[in-house]
Design brief:
Helix content of chain A: over 70%
Largest sheet of chain C: 2 strands, antiparallel
Distance between the termini of chain C: 101 Å
Radius of gyration of chain A: 16 Å
Shape of chain C: globular
Chains: A mainly alpha (99), B mainly alpha (523), C mainly alpha (631)
Strand content of chain A: under 5%
Order of helices and strands of chain A: HHH
Number of strands of chain A: 0
Structural class of chain C: mainly alpha
Helix content of chain C: over 70%
Strand order of the largest sheet of chain C: 1-2
Order of helices and strands of chain C: HHEEHHHHHHHHHHHHHHHHHHHHHH
Number of strands of chain C: 2
Oligomer: heterotrimer
Number of helices of chain C: 24
Largest sheet of chain A: none
């Protein structure tokens, strides 16, 4: 199977994720969409690794996973505490950082 | 390798600042004593520098040199000439008095203000300023100088904005607004100056390939480093602008009255007697050495601006209603004299200007600190709120009078010698400017004596009737300054001996010789 | 012997330091410490004087180098004292009269709680004045010059709680500062011309300098002299200076400090000799002032202000004489010394009268005091006779010589100057007789004050009368001692130089003319104030009288032009500084603020809109990269 198809898939997943981040208000969904984008990237990395025949892409993919895991920890914690204090998980409600 | 004396002189107050800041809030008195002790130790180091410096020796002494940012040729290079030594000694000398005078300025407020007033922070910031000022005087690497020239704005900003007069503290929102306005104004003016200087510093690197003052100056002198006329002028203007803001020279002066008015008296002294001196010092060290031709090119304009500063500052001082603003405008007038002396390019003028920096530091400190004691008693900065203080607090009035007399350059007190040298030095080359500048001495008498008359003489106002005289701590601050004013007034030789050789060097950098008298009668 | 010179200055300086820093502990003895130290200075002066007398005229210059004061490349100022005949004369006058006035003040200031400080200031004055006359270069002279100005400031404003005193003190200092400006410009000119400002080199090289520069120096020195010696146009401060305690008026504003200008001119004689134009200006200033002061003196009802006008006028005589050049220098100094005696005596007499009259100064409220204060009356009377130039007394010898020298100037100038001096002598006789008659003769005119206290005129204590008696002796005999056999001339000539004038009128004629105008002046005064009772309230008087009461409107001019004008100038400058200079910068800041205000609208707080801009930015970046590749 042509590895380029994986790249198309990856681009599709990334676009779905990005759209989700931009249009959804629920912080959890936004968060999942971010994960989707990260994994789309991972897919692309692995594909490129396969295409070029070296291991760089796979190594980077592992890095990305670690980062994503760390991000889940921090991000979920923030969302939970935000929900506790404001009883809402809408990203639009948390607009205090404007001037 | 010998003991890095210059690094130690700057590092000691820096470490002291850290240590002072680390003292827990509950033991704020300990923080004060620690700061005082550190400043005294720095003074001791400053005296060692003074003693170790040999006026007849090399141009830069006690030098230290280490690579720092090798890629850009930035080095950690220190060295002092006579002018720097004198100013380091002045700085180290004044800080203990500033600390002692501000002993209670940062105490927490008794009444229900929620403002956080970290006592130890106040003293730590003062020490931090001291460290940065000292290293600015020592740096012979342009980049190193630039960093500390700019960095001292940070602690100054907090000192001005965070610690106002106790008199104006009590729940007065307007006062807090004004104070933060003054602090921001101070910061913005000096930042703009600094940014323009940064551009010039980078430009200098592009042209010269390194930042070492000694190397560039030498290359300039023996012709190996050629600068196009326009390049030199632009670079000169970039440097000069920053120093003129700091100094401050008319019309870049308006931040000073605000800053001095809003800050406490010791901080005001720190601004005008210590920090501003970096500006005039840098004109002597960097502008004249690095850009001799451009300096001469700009001289006429600078002299006129300095002259305007002298007269304009004095006239505005006459019109002030606020004691601190009055002193600020008087300082602007005095800085005019200093810049006049520097750019008259005669040995009398430049020696006088350097001496003036020292003397102005001491005399302004004396006047401003006593004014601060006065203000803290009555809780007002307005001249009209006083009257007849002489009757109730004769010692305070007497020291205030001596400070005033020093400000008007009474012969016998230190500022006279320097002011006269500046005037003579200017007069020999530019008689008309010298004569106009002499009007400044009449105006100086006017603003100081009017201030003294309105505050100290006349019938005793009921509000000042219960005013206590100077306390021992306050007397301890003022008395040594007055002794020093008198001593340097009758015997300025120790300072001039240190300064003269460096001035001679600077003059030879710009290829200027003193005008000869028309009749040779001196021998 | 040279080493004693510094002690002359050191003694009163020590007194000033001890008394001013000593605190309340010294209140009980402070005045005696002050008097003792000033007398010590006088004793040292006498010792040095006898030493000088024992030497040949050429060797009568002693120098004491103390230390190098300001050493800067090409600019050398030393603290060096020079004692020659001229400064010796001043030293004796200053310390002698000074000590007497210290003694007088012990009594006069007895009830003042700040007496210690008063003596501290007096000692400070003595030290500064001695530095002034002993300095060997103009810069050190400047120290003394402003030092006496400071002492004068402190003493005029001694009763600071009175706003009028504080204002008068400030005014004196400021007007003097204008003069000081002249001195500092003169020193700068000297430095550019000669490369030095020490007396010796400058005065001996005068011949090498151009006349234009010398005229400039001389005129600037004259400006300085005008300030210190209250000469027109800088005379306005002296009348107000009478706000100070009377001993101060006697010592500083009559006998010593105000004559410093004359000293300066005589000391710089070589410069003035080489600048005839400047000399002419000096004589004109002197002549104008001697008439100005005399006219003002005629109209004042305040006894001290009348005497102040007289001082101005007498110094006018000295300046006139000094402007005449070598024919007048010696007589200027001689008149200065005799004037020091009789004017100090007159002021002390006035102080004694005030002491007995509850500090009343209005002569219209005196009258007939000779019965109550016999000693004061006699000493004051002798001073009066001396100042109007009664034959045989001090003023006769010195003033007569000046009038003679003025005529000897020659030409039209000589006639004008001589005529002015003669006219001045007549007016002097008039106003001094007026003072005498209003104070000591006629009926008593004093009334109980608003609290019902009636003054009880009484003779002053011994500490006050003794100095008055001593000064009266000086007023009577000093002129004779100096004048007969030209002793004073021979003493001073080596320093100042002397030439005999070529007078178109004989000395005898001048003396006779002086006698005639003197009699006329006294007679007019007698007709006006002796034969008729003096009204207790001043009559309106002629236009000239009213103008003279206001110091010939000079103060009003100053007020309108300088004070008001200055106020307007500073006020408008404050406005300009706030609106224009600050405004430009603030305007720049405001426009930046407006711009950023618009920009910050983008910062709306919605995380998703930030994300959009981020994606947009990334997309643009990618597109740009691809585009660059493609090209």
């Amino acid at each position: 199977m042509n590895p380029v198809n994986y790249l198309y898939l990856s681009a599709l997943l990334f676009t779905i994720g990005a759209t989700g981040v931009l249009i959804r208000r629920n912080a959890i969904v936004v968060f999942m969409c971010v994960e989707l984008m990260l994994n789309a990237c991972n897919l692309a990395f692995v594909t490129f690794s396969r295409m070029h025949g070296n291991l760089d892409g796979q190594v980077i993919a592992f890095f990305t996973m670690v980062v994503a895991a760390a991000e889940v920890v921090v991000g979920l914690a923030i969302i939970v505490s935000l929900f506790r204090s404001r009883h809402s998980a809408s990203v639009d409600d948390a607009s205090l950082m404007k001037l | 390798m010998s003991f890095p004396l210059l690094t130690a002189t700057a590092a000691l107050p820096a470490l002291g600042a850290v240590a002072t800041a680390a003292v827990p809030a509950a033991r704020r008195t300990a923080a004060k004593w620690l700061a005082l002790f550190v400043s005294l130790a720095t003074l001791a180091l400053g005296i060692v520098v003074l003693v170790r410096f040999d006026p007849g020796g090399d141009r830069y002494q006690l030098t230290e040199s280490h690579p720092w940012i090798a890629d850009f040729g930035v080095r950690y290079e220190l060295g002092v000439d006579g002018i720097a030594v004198a100013l380091i000694a002045l700085t180290a000398l004044l800080i203990p008095f500033v600390i002692l005078a501000g002993w209670h300025d940062a105490d927490p407020l008794e009444t229900g203000s929620k403002r956080w007033r970290p006592t130890q922070g106040f003293f730590a910031l003062i020490l931090a300023v001291e460290a940065m000022v000292i290293i600015s005087f020592e740096a012979t690497d342009v980049f190193l100088f630039y960093i500390f020239f700019e960095a001292m704005l940070i602690p100054m900003y907090f000192l001005i904005g965070g610690f106002g007069d106790r008199a104006h503290e009590h729940g007065d929102e307007a006062a807090a607004t004004q104070r933060s306005y003054a602090a921001v104004k101070f910061l913005l003016y000096n930042l703009v100056g600094g940014l323009i200087m940064l551009a010039a510093v980078i430009g200098l690197y592009v042209v010269a390939g390194n930042f070492s003052l000694a190397e560039i100056a030498q290359a300039r002198a023996n012709g190996t480093l050629h600068m196009a006329t326009n390049t030199e002028r632009w670079l000169f203007l970039g440097f000069f602008f920053a120093f003129a803001v700091k100094a401050p020279l008319w019309p870049l002066h308006t931040w000073l009255p605000n800053a001095m008015q809003e800050s406490t008296a010791p901080v005001a002294v720190l601004i005008t007697a210590v920090v501003d001196k970096v500006g005039t010092f840098a004109m002597l060290r960097f502008c004249l050495q690095l850009f001799p031709e451009a300096s001469k090119w700009a001289t006429p304009v600078i002299l006129v601006l300095a002259l305007i500063s002298i007269i304009y500052g004095a006239l505005l001082a006459v019109g002030q209603r606020d004691i601190k603003r009055l002193v600020a405008y008087a300082s602007i007038s005095h800085f005019g004299f200093i810049i006049l002396g520097i750019f008259a390019m005669t040995s009398q003028g430049q020696s006088g200007a350097t001496l003036y920096m020292v003397n102005h530091g001491i005399s302004t400190a004396a006047l401003m600190l006593v004014a601060g004691f006065l203000i803290s008693r009555r809780g007002s900065r307005l001249i009209a709120d006083y009257g007849g203080v002489q009757k109730v607090a004769p010692v305070l009035a007497g020291t205030f009078l001596i400070g005033s007399l020093a400000t008007l350059s009474l012969p016998g007190l230190a500022p006279f010698v320097s002011e006269f040298l500046v005037l003579v030095g200017t007069f020999t080359r530019y008689p008309a400017i010298g004569i106009i500048a002499t009007f400044g001495i009449v105006l100086a008498a006017l603003y100081t004596l009017v201030l003294y008359q309105r505050t100290m003489t006349g019938p005793v106002k009921p509000e000042v009737a219960a005013m206590p005289d100077l306390r021992p701590r306050e007397l301890l601050v003022v008395a040594p300054l007055i002794v020093l004013l008198i001593f340097l007034g009758v015997y300025p030789k120790p300072v001039t001996d240190i300064v003269n050789p460096s001035v001679k060097q600077t003059l030879s950098d710009v290829h200027k010789k003193d005008p000869k008298p028309s009749v040779e009668a001196a021998k | 012997m040279e080493n004693l010179i510094a002690l002359l200055v050191a003694a009163p300086l020590l007194g000033a330091v001890v008394l001013l820093c000593g605190g309340r502990r010294l209140d009980a003895v402070g005045h005696w410490i002050g008097t003792l130290l000033s007398s010590a200075s006088f004793v040292i002066g006498v010792v040095l004087f006898t030493d000088l007398l024992g030497k040949n005229a050429e060797h009568r210059t002693l120098m004491q180098h103390l230390w190098t004061w300001v050493p800067v490349e090409g600019f050398q100022a030393d603290v060096t004292f020079r004692l020659d005949q001229l400064s010796m004369t001043f030293v004796l006058l200053i310390t002698g009269v000074g000590s007497l006035i210290h003694l007088y003040s012990v009594g006069y200031m007895e009830h003042d709680e700040r007496r210690r400080r008063f003596f501290g200031y007096l000692n400070l004055f003595l030290a500064a004045m001695l530095i002034l006359v002993l300095a060997d270069n103009y810069l050190l002279l400047y120290v003394g010059w402003e030092g006496v100005g400071l002492a004068s400031y402190l003493l005029i404003g001694f009763w600071q709680h009175k706003p009028s005193a504080a204002t008068a003190a400030k005014k004196a200092f400021l007007v003097n500062r204008v003069g000081d400006m002249g001195l500092s410009i003169a020193i700068m000119l000297m430095f550019t011309t000669f490369g030095t400002f020490a007396f010796g080199p400058v005065l001996s090289h005068v011949g090498d300098a151009s006349e234009g520069k010398l005229t400039g120096i001389a005129l600037m020195l004259l400006l300085a002299a005008c300030g210190k010696s209250a000469q027109v146009p800088l005379q306005s401060w002296l009348g107000d200076a009478m706000e100070g305690p009377t001993p101060v008026s006697a010592l500083i504003h009559a006998a010593t400090m105000v004559t410093a200008g004359v000293y300066l001119i005589v000391r710089s004689g070589a410069i003035f000799n080489a600048a005839p134009d400047a000399q002419l200006v000096v004589t004109v200033v002197g002549a104008v002032t001697l008439l100005f002061g005399a006219i003002v003196g005629c109209a004042k009802d305040d006894i001290k202000k009348a005497l102040a006008g007289s001082t101005m006028s007498q110094i006018g005589y000295m300046v006139l004489a000094a402007g005449l050049g070598p024919i007048g220098y010696v007589f200027a100094i001689m008149h200065l010394v005799t004037h020091g005696f009789f004017k100090a005596g007159l002021f002390l007499g006035a102080g004694s009268v005030m002491h007995g009259m509850n500090d009343e100064v209005d002569m219209r409220k005196y009258g007939g005091l000779r019965k109550y204060m016999p000693v004061t009356f006699i000493t004051f009377g002798l001073g009066y006779l001396a100042i109007i130039g009664f034959p045989g007394l001090s003023g006769f010898f010195s003033k007569d010589k000046i009038i003679e020298a003025a005529f000897a100037k020659g030409g039209t100038e000589g006639w004008i100057l001589g005529g002015a001096a003669l006219l001045g002598a007549a007016i002097t006789a008039f106003y001094m007789t007026r003072v005498m008659l209003m104070t000591f003769f006629g009926e008593k005119r004093w009334q109980p004050d608003e609290n019902g206290h009636e003054p009880h005129p009484h003779e002053s204590p011994r500490t006050m009368t003794i100095p008055m008696i001593v000064l009266a002796f000086g007023s009577v005999f000093a002129g004779g001692i100096f004048g007969i056999g030209d002793r004073f001339l021979h003493w001073l000539e080596p320093v100042t130089g002397h030439e005999e004038g070529n007078s178109p009128v004989s000395a005898l004629t001048v003396t006779l003319a002086t006698m005639v105008v003197l009699v006329i002046g006294v007679a007019i005064a007698w007709a006006q104030y002796g034969r008729r009772p003096v009204p207790a309230v001043a009559p309106r008087g002629s236009l000239l009288t009213r103008a003279a009461r206001r110091d010939l409107l000079q103060d009003d001019f100053n007020h309108v032009v300088l004070v008001r004008g200055g106020e307007h100038l500073t006020r408008s400058l404050v406005y300009v500084d706030h609106t224009l200079v600050d405004g430009v910068v603030n305007g720049t800041a405001a426009s930046m603020g407006g711009l950023s205000g618009r920009l910050r609208k983008l910062q709306n707080g919605y995380a998703r809109s930030y994300a959009v801009s981020m994606f947009g930015g990334a997309a643009i970046l990618v597109a740009a990269t691809l585009l660059m590749r493609a090209v």
